Amino acid sequence: MTEKMTRLTTFSTGEVDITTWKRTDVDVYLSAAQSLQNMEIGTTGLAKKRQGTSLLLNATGYAQFNSRMYDFVDQFGTHYLLMSATGYFYVFLAPTDENQVITYTGANVVTGYGTNVVVNANNLLFVQAIPTPYLSGDLDSIDYTLDNDVFIITHPNYPPARIYISHYNGASPPTFAYMVLNIYPLPSYDFNQINYNNFTVALSVTNNILTFQFTGLGSDPGFNSAWIGGQIIGGGATDIDPVGYAIITNVSYSGGTTTFTATVQIAFQTTGYSTIGSQYSVRQPVWSAALGYPAKTVFYQSRLWFANTPQLSNGVFGSKINNPVNFDVGTGSDTDAIVYIIGQTNSGAINWLNGGKQLEIYCQNLEFACPQNENVALTPTTFAVRQQSAYGSSPSLKPLTYINDSYYASKTGKALINFHFNGIGLSYISSNISAASTHLVKNPSNRALMRGSDTSQDNFIYYLNPDDDTITAFQFAAEYKLAALTPINFNQGVQLIDITSIDNSIYILKYYPLSNQFTVEQFDDSIRVDAAFDAPMQSSGLVTGLSSLNGYTVQVVYINQDFGQYLVIGGQITVNNPQMIADTVLIGILYDNEVVPMYPFSGAAESPFKKKLSRLYVDYYNSLNFSVNGTLVPYQYYSQIQAGLPLMPQTGTAIITPITGWNRFDDDGTPIISIKQSSPFDLQILSIGYQIESEVI
């Protein structure tokens, strides 16, 4: 029998699945955990309790089950929340100003760290309801992009449109409006619907107006107003003569002759021109009411890009530079529009466009990028696509970019992929960031990024999982080799509708079935309960105004003191209040935490050995009211209780004599090592040390 001391000093790999639990041969073993429920991983690798949420808005009058939230930023940097619903987009002014929370007695409310608690003064302020044509069944299929103070919307059944600020009103919120984009000319394409060998061409040009006729067809070929905005290309005496180009303005048919009228962009040869139909190309607009509309969009390099029309599911269309409603291909100069069809038939339809280090194109089966040299923009002559990987992308999750990396879900929604631009050969490398944590990837429907700040370099992407109403948090920091996935859940059957990032804060749209209420809540690092808001408590302990949480058990906190949990009935609770305090209390829903480390490690060669844990050392920081293996870690001594001192987070080392055994779980399925908390206070675990005696089984 040998005795060893081993320490787990980082959780930087996060919670891993059961297939990784015995992989003592891989490096991630000593930086992972079996369970990190409602925990986040800090930059240095510590496991800390996740943020709570503060209640910003009772959205019951606005939201529905497939509503979506979007960030809108105006030219002055003011952020707004857009919320979609049947027939409307609702606009809310996002919180900006911070005020200190003051009790009724005039005292500052402080956190467990002694800092003043601040709140956003106005929460979410309703601004306007904007009528839109989108019905309930359309909301899930909307794509969007934002540039300056214009929010572009695409949907395969509706023409591209925008939500914009139509008028600024001084100190009051501005006026918003919805408008279909007046795009002219539209991008065009020859769909090969014309047998050019069957007709003869005649053309003339007067005052820059082309009259283009063809005869020889036995009946009306069906050309109609759907061709207006298309293009006529050709007009030379031979196929190598200068090419004419005109934009179609009218179409008519009479007596066996189809006549196109068009505005000339590049001069046609009007004498000695070819009369053979195959010398020309008559191109139809790629979208229209009859053909359907583009499903995807992005602003990139001062161009507005569209993709995936019903007729060209792998087509990409870029506007003229600095002219987002003009798709005139012109002479192919650097500023002219771009029309490009991906030539690989196995790529599948384009699911997303994304503006990363390059223009990124995510298809059903393949991922592409448009390579460009540094300081050289995409132009009609340089535009090309290059296949980078073959995971295929999920149609449910819009990719997200942070610095040199984009993140997307595989086509099955069961893996999260890092699309990393490495600069070598202007190429990308794709890698699965969830290989060790497959159980946490559940076909997410949306995501939100929270960037690191001056005080914390923790970067987070929160993925919303609609199948089980959970969130998977991805924490990453390249310089610390942090890449951790952890689960976030919400108690008491709360449903998650959507998630977004506004002004680097995370907003969640929720539904509470018991009270039939929708809410918008914001992650808040100063609290450790969900749906938190302040409410007045009378000296009798009565707290009213809680109808939004009818049927739910709520936690009551007063100046960092746990006043217990109570079931809301009739919009009120009565708190056990022997001191007859009349003041503001914090109301919220408690969530539980659990840290279960990997099975004690005594060396790769000795891991299968039977182990006896004689001692367990848990280093914790600024934590309060948690237990290790069912043993409460002391946080207040009798003398402090006698003195009436408030509860304060503690820092120290808990030394525990755990149960003995070589299984991960006891006979009841309980982990032999677990750190749990069910209280509205902080929990931060720095490291875990094991004193191990091992022997051959």
Structure description:
The protein contains 1 helix and 55 strands. It is mostly beta strands and 697 residues long. The strands form 13 sheets. A 7-stranded antiparallel β-sheet has the order 17-23-20-21-22-19-18, with no helix packed on it. Strands 1, 4, 5, 50, 53 and 55 form a 6-stranded antiparallel β-sheet that branches. A 6-stranded mixed β-sheet has the order 2-3-49-54-51-52, with no helix packed on it. The chain is elongated, with a radius of gyration of 31 Å. The mean pLDDT is 88.
Rg, nearest Å: 31 Å
Q: Characterize the quaternary organization of these chains.
A: single chain
Described by strand count, sense and barrel closure, the largest sheet is: 7 strands, antiparallel
By DSSP (H or I, 4+ residues per run), the number of helices equals 1
> What is the percentage of strand-forming residues?
over 45%
**SSE class:** mainly beta
Low-confidence stretches: none
Shape: elongated
N- and C-termini, Cα separation: 11 Å
Query: Percent range for helical residues?
Result: under 10%
Number of strands: 55
Average pLDDT rating: 88
Strand order of the largest sheet: 17-23-20-21-22-19-18
